[in-house]
Specification:
It contains 17 helices and 22 strands. It is α+β, with helices and mostly antiparallel strands. It folds into three domains: 93 residues, Nucleic acid-binding proteins (OB fold (Dihydrolipoamide Acetyltransferase, E2P), Beta Barrel); 258 residues, 2-Layer Sandwich (BirA Bifunctional Protein, domain 2); 125 residues, GAD-like domain (Gyrase A, domain 2), CATH 3.30.1360. Helix 4 packs across helix 6, helix 4 packs across helix 16 and helix 7 crosses helix 12. Aspartic acid binds next to strand 21 and strand 22. The site of aspartic acid (ASP) has 9 residues, from strand 21 and strand 22.
C-alpha cells in the first residue's frame, strides 16, 4: 500500500497513529541533528521530522539527500508539533519518520513550485505539469470540476441528457474560420472541427430527444485576441417545445444554482434588457451593471446654443461619475487623453463639475448657462459632488466610446468588485448585420436563428431592421453565453439562407441535411451555449481563462510544451494527398 492517508488529512486527533504517506518533497529544512520535510500532494502538506535522537543515522542521511520534488513514501508516527502552524490544517502535527523510500528522483524544477513562483508564463507553459503542482493552478482546476459537476447535476435533474456529437464534421457557420482535418481515406476531402455542435443538437431535437446538453470542446480558428483560446469548452444545450422565456428561465435557474452552491450568493430575477436598450444605455451589448453610470441623451437640451461640436453631432450623450467632482483637472485630462488614443478614437470630452453648493462649472461655460447645465445633470442623474462627462459624434461610435470610458472609470473607481455578481439577459438582437467587406448581410448569431415571426415581412423590405429571438447571458460585463429560438420551418430557413446570399444550390450543398430533416416533423426548439472557461473564471473572481484550462494554448495558438502545431513528414503529407506551398 502506498499510503494510509493523504498529505492534507492528519489532525491532532490522529496522534500516535502509525501512518504511511506518499508525495513530493516540497521543502526541507536541515538543522544538522534534525531534518524537517514538507511532503506535498494534491490534498495538502504534512510535515515530516527526522531526528538524530529518535531516528537512525542512515535515515537522517537519506533524508538530507532528498532533493526538491523527489517522490517519496514514508511511514512513521503522528506526533504533536512543538511549534504549531495555524495557517495549515495539518499544522498541529508532524510525522516522526521511521521508514523512508524514494519512489522517484527529480531534476531541480525550472521554477519554484509555490503560489508566488519565479517562473514566467512561457516557462510555466513549457512545464505545465509542474505548474499544475502549484496550489494556484491546481485549485483552479478543482474549482472548474466543482462547477462542471454542479452543471451536470442541475441539468440531469431537469431531464436533460448528455449526448456526444461528432468532432469530425462538415463546417458549421458560427462566424469564425474552421479548423480543417484532411481525410486520408477520401483523398482531397476534408473534415472540419465543430465551431459548435449547433446543427447536431438541432437534429437531436428532430430525433425527439427533447432536452440535450453536452460539456463540449469547440474549435474556432480566429485571429487570437487576448484571452481567447482556439479550442474552448461550451455548456451546450437545446430544448424542444419551448419559447424564449422557457429557455431563459431554465438557464437563469442554472446560473442561480451555480452562484448559490459555488459562491453562496443569492441573486434575484435577472434583469432583461433589449439589445437596442443596452446599446443606448451602456454603449455595449454586454453591459457591466455592477455599477450604474447609464447614458443620458442630451441632443434636445444641448443643440440649441452656438456650440458647433454638439450641434453638428448625430448624438450627444453623457454619464455622471459618482463623486467625480473630486477629480483634479489633471485626472480629467488623463481621461481625455485616454479617449483620444487610437483604440478609442474620440475627439475629446466635455465635462461639468456639479459643485456641493448646487452650482455647475463646465468646460463649455462660454456657451451654456447654469440652467442648461442643470438640465444635463437631471438627464444624466448627476447629484451634487458628481462629474458629468459628455461625448458627441456619430451614434455608433460615440456610444462605443462612452461605453469604454464608463467601464474604464468603473474600474478605476473600484466599482467592478469581482466578488459581486450582476447577471442579466440581453434580448432581441438584430437578426443580421451588414458586412462591409463582403458587401452582404451576415447572421448576427447564426443562420438557424429565428427572426421575430411578426417581422418576417420586413425581411424582404428592410432586413437590417429585423430582430431575432436571440439572447445573450451577460455576467459582470462579459458575454458568457448566447442562444436563440431556432427556425424549424423549412420555408423560413430557405428565406433566411437567401437573405444571407446563399443560392438554393449552395444552401442545399452546405445544409441539405438540415433542410431534409426539417421535412420530417421538426419540433419548435431553441437553446443556448455558455462558455465554461469564462464562466468558471468569473465565478472564481478572475477575468483570465488560461489558468482554468489544464493545457492552454499561448497567444499565438501554440502549445509550447508538446510543440504543436508542428510539421508532419513527407510521407504523411503524401498519404493525405497534400503538398506544401514552396
Ligand atoms: N451554437 C451557438 C454558439 O456557439 C449557441 C446556440 O445558439 O445555442 O454560440
Amino acid at each position: 500500500m502506498y499510503r494510509t492517508h493523504n498529505c492534507g488529512e492528519l489532525r491532532i486527533s490522529d496522534l500516535n497513529k502509525k501512518v504511511t504517506l506518499s508525495g513530493w518533497v516540497h521543502k526541507s529544512r536541515d538543522k544538522g541533528f534534525m531534518v524537517w520535510i514538507d511532503l506535498r500532494d494534491r490534498y495538502g502538506v504534512s510535515q515530516l521530522i527526522f531526528d538524530e535522537k529518535r531516528s537512525s543515522k542512515d535515515l537522517i542521511k537519506n533524508a538530507k539527500d532528498l532533493g526538491r520534488e523527489y517522490v517519496i513514501q514514508v511511514t512513521g508516527k503522528v506526533i504533536e508539533r512543538s511549534s504549531k502552524n495555524t495557517n495549515i490544517p495539518t499544522g498541529e502535527i508532524e510525522i516522526l519518520v521511521s521508514d523512508l523510500k524514494i519512489l522517484n528522483s527529480s531534476k531541480v524544477p525550472p521554477f519554484t513550485i509555490e503560489n508566488k513562483t519565479d517562473g514566467g508564463e512561457e516557462l510555466r507553459m513549457k512545464y505545465r505539469y509542474l505548474d499544475i503542482r502549484r496550489n494556484s493552478i491546481k485549485d483552479k482546476l478543482i474549482f472548474r470540476n466543482k462547477v462542471s459537476s454542479e452543471i451536470r447535476k442541475y441539468l440531469n435533474g431537469l431531464n436533460f441528457i448528455d449526448v456526444e456529437t461528432p468532432c469530425l464534421i462538415k463546417s458549421t457557420p458560427e462566424g469564425a474560420r474552421d479548423f480543417i482535418v484532411p481525410s486520408r481515406m477520401n483523398s482531397g476531402k476534408f473534415y472540419a472541427l465543430p465551431q459548435s455542435p449547433q446543427t447536431f443538437k438541432q437534429l437531436l431535437m428532430v430525433g425527439g430527444l427533447d432536452r440535450y446538453f453536452q460539456i463540449v470542446k469547440c474549435f474556432r480558428d480566429e485571429d487570437l485576441r487576448a484571452d481567447r483560446q482556439p479550442e474552448f469548452t461550451q455548456i451546450d444545450c437545446e430544448m424542444s417545445f419551448v419559447n424564449q422565456d422557457d429557455v431563459l428561465n431554465t438557464f437563469e435557474g442554472l446560473t442561480k444554482h451555480l452562484l448559490k452552491t459555488i459562491k453562496n450568493v443569492k441573486v434575484d430575477k435577472f434583469p432583461r434588457i433589449t439589445y437596442d436598450n443596452a446599446i443606448a444605455k451602456y454603449g455595449s451589448d454586454k453591459p457591466d451593471i455592477r455599477f450604474s453610470m447609464e447614458f443620458g441623451e442630451l441632443n434636445s437640451i444641448s443643440q440649441h446654443k452656438d456650440f458647433n461640436i454638439f450641434n453638428s453631432a448625430e448624438l450627444v450623450i453623457g454619464i455622471s461619475v459618482p463623486k467625480g467632482n473630486d477629480f483634479t483637472r489633471k485626472e480629467i485630462d488623463k481621461y481625455i487623453a485616454w479617449v483620444k488614443r487610437p483604440q478609442i478614437g474620440a475627439n475629446g470630452i466635455v465635462y461639468v463639475r456639479c459643485n456641493e453648493d448646487g452650482t455647475y462649472k463646465s468646460s463649455v461655460d462660454k456657451f451654456y448657462d447654469q440652467k442648461d447645465l442643470a438640465n444635463w445633470a437631471k438627464t444624466t442623474n448627476a447629484n451634487k459632488g458628481d462629474l458629468i462627462l459628455i461625448m458627441s459624434g456619430d451614434k455608433d461610435n460615440v456610444r462605443r466610446q462612452l461605453g469604454e470610458l464608463r467601464v474604464e472609470i468603473g474600474e478605476t473607481l473600484g466599482l467592478r468588485n469581482p466578488n459581486e455578481f450582476a447577471p442579466l439577459w440581453v434580448t432581441d438582437f438584430p437578426l443580421l448585420k451588414w458586412d462591409e467587406e463582403s458587401n452582404s448581410y451576415h447572421a448576427m448569431h447564426h443562420p438557424f436563428t429565428s427572426p421575430k415571426l411578426d417581422q418576417i415581412d420586413l425581411l424582404k423590405s428592410n432586413p437590417g431592421e429585423v430582430k431575432a429571438n436571440a439572447y445573450d447571458l451577460v455576467l459582470n460585463g462579459n458575454e458568457i453565453g448566447g442562444g436563440s429560438i431556432r427556425i424549424h420551418d423549412k420555408n423560413i430557413q430557405s428565406l433566411m439562407f437567401k437573405n444571407l446570399g446563399f443560392s438554393e444550390k449552395q444552401a442545399k450543398e452546405q445544409f441539405g441535411f438540415l433542410m431534409n430533416a426539417f421535412e420530417y416533423g421538426a419540433p419548435p426548439h431553441g437553446g443556448i451555449a455558455l462558455g465554461l472557461d469564462r464562466l468558471v473564471a468569473i465565478l472564481d473572481g478572475n477575468e483570465s481563462i488560461k489558468d482554468y484550462i489544464a493545457f492552454p494554448k499561448n497567444n499565438s495558438g501554440k502549445d509550447i510544451m508538446i510543440d504543436a502545431p508542428s510539421s508532419i513528414s513527407k510521407d504523411q503529407l503524401d498519404e493525405l494527398s497534400l503538398s506544401l506551398k514552396k
